[in-house]
Amino acid sequence: MRYSSAFIPTLREHPKEAEAVSHKLMLRAGMIRRLCSGVYCYLPLGWRVLKKVIQIVREEMDKAGAQEVLLPAIHPLELWEKTGRIHDLGDDMIKFKNRSDKTMALGPTHEEVITWLVAGEVRSYRQLPLILYQIQTKFRDEPRPRFGVIRTCEFIMKDAYSFHTDWDSLEEAYRKMYSAYVRIFERSGLNFLIVEADPGVMGGNVSHEFMALSQYGEDKVVVCRKCDYRTSLEIAERKSPEIEIRKKTFKEIKEVHTPEISSVEDVSRFLNVPPQQLLKTMIYKAEDKFIAALVPGDKEINEVKLRRHLGVKELRMAEPHEIREITGGEVGFSGPLGLSIMKIADYDVKKMSNFVTGANKTNYHLINVNIGRDFEIDEFADIRYLQQGDACPKCGCELEIKNAIEIGHIFKLGTKYSQPLNAMFLDEEGKEHPVIMGCYGIGVNRIIASYIEQNYDDKGILWNRELAPFQFVIIPINMSDEKIKTKAEEIYQFLMEEGCEVLYDDRDLRAGIKFNDAELIGIPEQIIIGDKYLKEGKIELKSRRTRESRFLSGPGDILTSLSAG
């Protein structure tokens, strides 16, 4: 590609709207342009990189025995209504009515569609196992698009689905996909972690996330400094502290008037007590019963851990009218005294004494409340979000919380989709069973952003050979010098004939501009034709990443030198 005819609109300054490094550099390098919030155009350089990522994904999925399909982006809502996920996704789903006045949706994911497809075609155990995948655009009405292509409303995913007669078969496919993901992210040059995770609205009981470490990652992972404990913050556990409820000097319990003061911060300020001296009481509905969850005021309840502790599939905050019926007070004034529902407290609550709680009476709180004297706890459990420095549940060492970008997620779905969508098979005896499923997703666009987040310097991007839009950039220092121009053309033609990806900067511009653009775009190998060539007949081959140079005699030495290196 000749730079003079290429569409590479580089920018000298960082755009004001960009926060993340990848967002800044993708805009500056002319890879993407923002159409509107969360929606981006891929320019030629960006599209070249995106195609490389897609090719890596496709090669590894094919190698793992998956077969590629292409599913519709427009979905009828009845499928989503059958599985109940239309309520789970809520406003994230982009819906519209067609000319027949039928409500449709732009697909945010494809579990329902692929299950419908298999339900109509698979009849016998002889047709299973089966792994199908696609590389397709997804659509979600993201409430807070951020960080360029990391969080968008329109994005490309590789989603694969496996179908099985039994759990052993699913386990085999799960291991295959796990290994394929490792190869994909290693080939993409990413520094990543694999962590246990909560399946969330996808369903199932086992899942792993593949996380690329980045300061701008919106997900958080928990890592032990000593052992191999790795998990997402959502389900991260800590070593149970050895705390006994000790009867300290109990002060007299009192009711205090706190007019229209309900938040932890405001109550803490009004009563002049630290937030950790307040007991936060949250009312939840766990399937068909209500429970109260208790944590110190400076901690946050982890609803995923609470749900898993209770062993329920559905957990939600109680509605204001339900809280009034259960406690007798408005939201913000709940407390454990007098509650007839189950009370579950975090382990940290054991350390508390003479604390503040809601009085179950609007505009009132209680001070000097104590466990044992004033009320009892039904269960203690680890139900708060883990914090930096908490103890590892495996070895007791300190845990670290790191920011990361989720680039892949694999799930064991079981029969969550096959049962409501009637995806059944007949076994050897002619008995009917629901198909057992697995699901495996990769955020294709996020691989590019994650790579840049981990590979850049003060000049620009540092591409590896797998993802780089071009392998070589030819930089003639002075295009008005016929000798330099002729040699540059000779090298360009030679590399093109050898099947190399080459950007030839044939623009009649100052050398400084050419070097700045080459550094910004990040092409791995720079071929410089300048004073060294005029004086000694040597061309310079310079590594973008290491900045090391080799001086070569002719075009043929370029490929030989790289092979030797």
Could you explain the architecture of this structure?
The relative contact order is 0.14. The protein is globular. With 565 residues, it is of the alpha+beta class. The mean pLDDT is 94. The chain folds into three domains: 3-71 and 110-236 and 401-452, Bira Bifunctional Protein, Domain 2 (BirA Bifunctional Protein, domain 2, 2-Layer Sandwich); 254-381, YbaK/aminoacyl-tRNA synthetase-associated domain (YbaK protein, Alpha-Beta Complex), CATH 3.90.960.10; 472-564, 3-Layer(aba) Sandwich (Rossmann fold), CATH 3.40.50.800. It has 14 helices and 29 strands.
Topology:
Elements: H1 21-28, E1 32-36, E2 39-42, H2 44-63, E3 67-68, E4 74-76, H3 77-83, H4 85-89, E5 94-97, E6 103-106, H5 111-121, E7 130-139, E8 154-164, H6 167-187, E9 192-196, E10 206-213, E11 219-224, E12 230-232, E13 254-257, H7 264-271, E14 279-286, E15 289-296, H8 303-310, E16 315-317, H9 320-327, E17 342-346, E18 355-358, E19 364-369, E20 379-381, E21 399-414, E22 424-426, E23 432-434, E24 436-443, H10 444-454, E25 472-476, H11 482-497, E26 502-504, H12 511-521, E27 525-529, H13 531-536, E28 539-543, E29 549-552, H14 556-564
Parallel strand pairs: 3-7, 15-17, 17-20, 25-26, 25-27
Antiparallel strand pairs: 1-2, 4-6, 5-6, 7-8, 8-24, 9-10, 10-21, 11-12, 11-21, 13-19, 14-15, 14-16, 18-19, 21-24, 22-23, 27-28, 28-29
Helix pairs in contact: 1-10, 2-6, 2-10
